[in-house]
Amino acid sequence: MHTKLREEVNYVTKGVIVYDLIVMALLLITSTFSKPMFLGLLFGTMIAILNFRLLAITINKSVTMPASKAQIYSTSQYMLRMLITGVVIFVSVKAPYLHVIGVAIGLLSPKFVILAKALLIDKLKRKEA
User: Fold this and answer.
1) Given phi > 0 = left and psi -120 to 50 = alpha, else beta, which region is 31?
2) N or C: which terminus of the chain has fewer CB atoms within 10 Å of its end residue's CB?
3) Cβ–Cβ < 8 Å for 85, 27
4) What is the pTM of this model?
């Protein structure tokens, strides 16, 4: 994997862990922390990190392919990631030991980390320069 891509994946992964710790602290403060919520958050986060890493691998591999093959490969990998997410949501709805909202928060964690980086950190860096 390209170094810059690996650095970005590692950055987002670390950010997701920090995000989860903040979410757990908020859940403790609001007294909504429970074992199913914790397990749901953990399960959703693990799948979100897996999906993000699969996306990075797909991007890294597809840039070396011809355009037509890259499009087919990227689309098939996208469908695989969506299938994984669908199965995770289905399992979280059916399993009594997983809280659906916890899973959803975990699944959305990379998006929140990337948005926070774009909105907060990058703007601060631009103001300093």
Assistant:
1) left
2) C
3) no
4) 0.85
